[in-house]
C-alpha cells in the first residue's frame, strides 16, 4: 500500500513538473509566432532545411515548425490533414498537378493581395507561375523549386569520333543526325548515339515543348514527328538503345549513361547532382557535359519541358501574414540562393542562382549557358484527371515503341482513350 | 419450486458465464477482423455506388460506376485477361503438381532433394522471382531465347516485350511458382491411399494405367477439389506477380482485375470505380466457390 502511494505521488510530482515546464516554454515563445509548414524527406533535401534556417535567422520573431512526411505518402497525407482542418499555415505541394484540386476544395489561399502589397516579383519564375494561377486569376502557389529537361552528352564519345560538342541552339533533326555519326561498334560494346529513356515523357515531351500543346489535348497528332524520329533512330539507324531491351531488363538511364554506352541523353536537371556524385565517388569516369534541349524548327531556342514544386498558403491559416513572410522568403531571392547553394534548382532562376549552381564542384564547364531557359512547359499540367491520362499515355507509348501498333494506330487509341477518360 | 428457480438462475448465469468466456476468446481476433476486413468490405460495398476521390465529399451515384466500368476498354480487357490467366494457370498448375507428385512418390535416391527443389519457388520472394524471370525472358540477351535459337527457332518470341507472349510468359512463371506447394498436397494424399487397394488391383490383373485412373484419381478427389479451389481463388486475385513482371504491360496486355482496381484507386483516385470492380471480382470468385462446394458435395455423395 505504502509502495503504491509512493508511486502515485512520484507520478503526480513528475507530471506537475513536466506541465510546469511546458507552460513555461509556451510562455517564453509567445513573443514568437510559430508557423507550421509541411514538407517531405527533409534529410535528403538540405535545400529546404538550409533555406528555413536562413529564414528564421532573418525573422527572429517567427519560428517555423517543419512537419517532415515521407515523400511516398506526402500527397495523400497533406490532403487528409487539410480536409481535417489542419492548423498548417503553409505547405509544399509535391505533385504540382494536384494544385487545382486542392484549390477546388477551397484549401489554398489566394496570394494576390500579398503579392501586390509587397510588390513581390513574380516575373522571375520564367513563366512557371501561370501553372499555379487558377482560372479565376487567383495565384495559389509560388514555385520554390523547378526541374527541366536538358541534353546530357558524353565528351569522350564526341572526342573519339572527332565531332564538335553540340551548341545550345540546335534542333531535333540535328540531334538525330549527330546520333548517327556517334554510333559505333556492335554487341555488348556498342556505343549508342542516344538514349531515350522508357518513360513516355522522353518522346512525348518534345511534342509539348512548344508550350502550345499539353498531354491533355484530345488530338495527339503533335506527338507524331517525335515518334517517327524515335522509331527511325531505334529501328532503321539503330542509334537508340532498344526500347524492349531497356524496358524488360530494367536498365536505368543513369547506369546506361554513366557507364559510357550512350553519347547523348535528354534528361531532367535532377540528374545533375547524381552525375556529379557518381563521378566524385569514382563509380563513373565519364566526362559529361550539358547543353540546352534541342527544339523543333518552329520552336524558339530555350524552350524546354519540366515541372515545379509550389509552396502554398492554407486558406484556413490564422497566421497568414507570417505564412506569407515565409513563402515570399522561400520563393524570393534569398530562398532561391539557398536552394542553388545546395544544388537544387529554385523556381526563381536567374543569372545569380544559375551561376551558383554552375559553379558547384564537379559541374561541367559551359553549364551556365546550357541552363538558360526562356520557357518551361509543364509535362503534366495541373488539371483534373492528369494522372489517369498520364498513365494511359504510358501504356500506349509502350505499344508504339515495341512496334505492336503503328504510330497512327497508337495515336488514335490515345485520342480515343483520352476522350473516354475525360468524358 | 423455489429450488428449481434457483437452479435455473444458476444455470443461466453459468451459461452466460460460458458465453462471456467464449466471446472473450474470440474477441481479440474478431476486433482485428472487423477493423481490417469486415468494415472495409462493407465500406467498399457502399463505395461501389458512390463517387469518391478519397478527399472530397462522397456522392451516391447509384449504378453509374458499374455501367461506367463496363464501357471501359481497360476493364473489359482486364476481365478477359483475368479469365485467360486463371483458366491456364489453374489447369497447368494442377497438371504439373499431380505429375510431380506421382513422380516423386517413389522411394528413389534424391527424392527429398527434388521435392525441396520443386517446393523452393513457392517460398521464394516474389520480387526476386520477378527480377530473375524478367532476365530469363529477355528478348535478345535472355537465356530462354538463347536456348530457343539453339534449338533452331530463328525468331523466338519477345515474351514480356510482346503483346501476344507476355501473358503466356506470366502463366509459365506462375505455374512454376505454384506447382511445388500443390505437389506437396497431392503427395500427402497419395501417401494416404491404402497400399492394399493397389495390391488387390494387381491380383485382378490391372496394369499401371488402370490403377492410376481407377484407384489413384478417385482417391485424390478431395485433394483435387481443394487444389482447384485454392488455385482458382488465388488466380482471380493475382496481382503481385504481374505487377513485378510486367506492371500490366505492354500496353494493357497483361492487366488483370487486381491491377485495374489498383490503378483506379491509387492512380486515378477513383475509389467508386475501383470498389465496383472489386465487387465484380468478389462476385466472380464467390460464384465459383459456391459452384465448387456444390459440385464437391454432389461428387462425394456420388462416390
UniProtKB/TrEMBL annotation, chain A:
CDD domains: PBP2_TMBP_like (cd13585). It holds the Pfam family SBP_bac_1. GO terms for cellular component: periplasmic space. Its main location: periplasm. Residues 1-20 form the signal peptide. It comes from the Bacteria. Keywords: Signal, Transport. InterPro entries: Bact_solute-bd_prot1, SBP. The complex is composed of two ATP-binding proteins (UgpC), two transmembrane proteins (UgpA and UgpE) and a solute-binding protein (UgpB). This is sn-glycerol-3-phosphate-binding periplasmic protein UgpB.
TrEMBL record, chain B:
GO terms for biological process: transmembrane transport. One of its GO terms (cellular component) is plasma membrane. It is a multi-pass membrane protein. Keywords: Cell membrane, Membrane, Transmembrane, Transmembrane helix, Transport. InterPro entries: ABC_transporter_permease, MetI-like, MetI-like_sf. It is found in: Cell membrane. Residues 79-292 form the ABC transmembrane type-1 domain. The chain crosses the membrane at residues 20-49, 83-105, 117-138, 158-176, 274-293. Belongs to the binding-protein-dependent transport system permease family. This is Carbohydrate ABC transporter membrane protein 1, CUT1 family. The lineage of its organism: Bacteria, Pseudomonadati, Spirochaetota, Spirochaetia, Spirochaetales.
Amino acid at each position: 500500500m505504502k509502495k503504491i502511494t509512493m508511486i502515485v505521488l512520484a507520478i503526480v510530482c513528475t507530471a506537475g513538473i513536466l506541465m510546469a515546464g511546458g507552460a513555461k516554454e509556451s510562455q517564453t515563445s509567445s513573443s514568437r509566432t510559430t508557423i507550421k509548414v509541411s514538407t517531405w524527406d527533409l534529410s535528403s533535401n538540405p535545400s529546404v532545411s538550409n533555406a528555413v534556417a536562413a529564414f528564421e535567422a532573418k525573422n527572429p520573431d517567427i519560428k517555423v515548425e517543419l512537419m517532415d512526411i515521407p515523400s511516398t505518402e506526402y500527397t495523400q497525407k497533406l490532403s487528409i490533414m487539410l480536409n481535417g482542418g489542419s492548423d498548417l499555415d503553409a505547405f509544399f505541394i509535391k505533385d504540382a498537378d494536384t494544385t487545382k484540386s486542392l484549390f477546388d476544395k477551397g484549401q489554398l489561399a489566394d496570394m494576390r493581395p500579398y503579392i501586390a502589397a509587397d510588390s513581390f516579383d513574380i516575373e522571375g519564375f520564367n513563366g512557371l507561375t501561370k501553372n499555379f494561377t487558377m482560372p479565376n486569376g487567383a495565384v495559389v502557389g509560388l514555385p520554390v523549386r523547378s526541374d527541366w529537361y536538358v541534353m546530357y552528352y558524353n565528351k569522350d564519345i564526341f572526342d573519339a569520333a572527332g565531332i564538335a560538342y553540340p551548341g545550345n541552339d540546335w534542333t531535333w533533326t540535328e540531334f538525330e543526325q549527330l546520333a548517327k555519326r556517334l554510333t559505333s561498334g556492335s554487341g555488348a560494346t556498342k556505343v549508342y548515339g542516344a538514349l531515350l529513356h522508357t518513360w513516355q515523357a522522353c518522346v512525348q515531351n518534345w511534342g509539348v515543348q512548344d508550350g502550345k500543346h499539353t498531354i491533355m489535348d484530345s488530338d495527339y497528332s503533335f506527338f507524331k514527328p517525335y515518334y517517327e524520329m524515335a522509331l527511325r533512330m531505334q529501328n532503321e539507324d539503330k542509334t537508340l538503345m532498344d526500347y524492349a531491351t531497356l524496358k524488360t531488363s530494367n536498365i536505368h538511364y543513369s547506369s546506361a549513361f554513366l557507364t559510357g554506352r550512350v553519347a547523348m541523353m535528354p534528361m531532367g536537371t535532377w540528374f545533375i547532382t547524381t552525375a556529379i556524385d557518381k563521378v566524385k565517388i569514382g563509380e563513373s569516369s565519364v566526362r559529361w557535359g550539358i547543353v540546352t534541349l534541342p527544339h523543333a524548327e518552329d520552336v524558339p531556342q530555350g524552350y524546354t519541358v519540366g515541372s515545379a514544386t509550389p509552396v502554398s498558403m492554407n486558406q484556413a491559416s490564422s497566421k497568414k501574414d507570417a505564412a506569407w513572410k515565409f513563402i515570399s522568403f522561400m520563393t524570393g531571392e534569398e530562398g532561391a540562393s539557398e536552394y542553388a547553394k545546395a544544388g537544387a534548382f529554385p523556381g526563381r532562376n536567374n543569372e545569380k542562382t544559375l551561376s551558383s549552381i554552375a559553379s558547384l564542384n564537379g559541374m561541367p564547364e559551359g553549364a551556365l549557358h546550357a541552363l538558360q531557359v526562356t520557357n518551361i512547359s509543364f509535362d503534366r499540367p495541373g488539371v483534373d484527371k492528369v494522372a489517369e491520362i498520364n498513365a494511359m499515355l504510358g501504356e500506349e507509348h509502350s505499344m508504339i515503341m515495341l512496334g505492336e501498333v503503328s504510330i497512327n494506330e497508337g495515336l488514335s487509341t490515345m485520342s480515343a482513350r483520352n476522350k473516354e477518360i475525360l468524358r | 419450486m423455489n429450488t428449481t428457480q434457483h437452479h435455473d438462475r444458476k444455470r443461466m448465469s453459468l451459461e452466460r458465464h460460458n458465453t462471456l468466456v467464449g466471446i472473450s476468446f474470440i474477441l481479440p481476433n474478431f476486433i482485428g477482423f472487423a477493423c481490417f476486413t469486415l468494415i472495409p468490405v462493407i465500406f467498399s460495398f457502399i463505395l461501389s455506388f458512390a463517387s469518391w476521390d478519397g478527399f472530397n465529399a462522397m456522392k451516391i451515384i447509384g449504378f453509374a460506376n458499374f455501367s461506367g466500368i463496363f464501357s471501359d476498354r481497360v476493364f473489359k480487357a482486364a476481365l478477359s485477361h483475368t479469365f485467360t490467366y486463371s483458366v491456364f494457370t489453374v489447369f497447368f498448375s494442377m497438371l504439373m503438381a499431380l505429375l510431380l507428385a506421382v513422380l516423386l512418390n517413389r522411394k528413389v535416391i534424391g527424392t527429398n532433394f527434388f521435392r525441396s527443389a520443386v517446393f523452393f519457388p513457392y517460398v521464394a520472394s516474389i520480387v526476386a522471382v520477378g527480377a530473375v524471370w524478367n532476365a530469363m525472358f529477355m528478348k535478345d540477351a535472355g537465356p530462354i531465347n538463347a536456348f530457343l535459337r539453339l534449338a533452331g527457332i530463328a525468331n523466338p518470341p519477345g515474351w514480356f516485350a510482346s503483346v501476344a507472349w507476355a501473358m503466356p510468359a506470366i502463366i509459365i512463371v506462375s505455374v512454376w511458382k505454384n506447382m511445388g506447394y500443390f505437389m506437396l498436397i497431392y503427395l500427402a494424399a497419395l501417401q494416404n491411399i491404402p497400399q492394399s487397394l493397389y495390391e488387390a488391383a494387381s491380383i485382378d490383373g490391372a496394369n499401371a494405367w488402370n490403377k492410376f485412373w481407377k484407384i489413384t484419381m478417385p482417391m485424390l478427389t478431395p485433394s483435387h477439389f481443394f487444389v482447384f479451389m485454392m488455385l482458382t481463388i488465388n488466380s482471380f486475385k493475382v496481382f503481385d506477380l504481374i505487377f513485378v513482371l510486367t506492371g500490366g504491360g505492354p500496353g494493357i496486355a497483361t492487366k488483370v482485375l487486381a491491377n485495374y482496381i489498383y490503378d483506379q484507386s491509387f492512380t486515378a483516385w477513383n475509389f467508386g470505380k475501383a470498389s465496383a470492380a472489386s465487387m465484380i471480382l468478389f462476385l466472380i470468385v464467390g460464384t465459383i466457390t459456391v459452384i465448387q462446394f456444390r459440385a464437391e458435395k454432389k461428387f462425394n455423395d456420388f462416390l
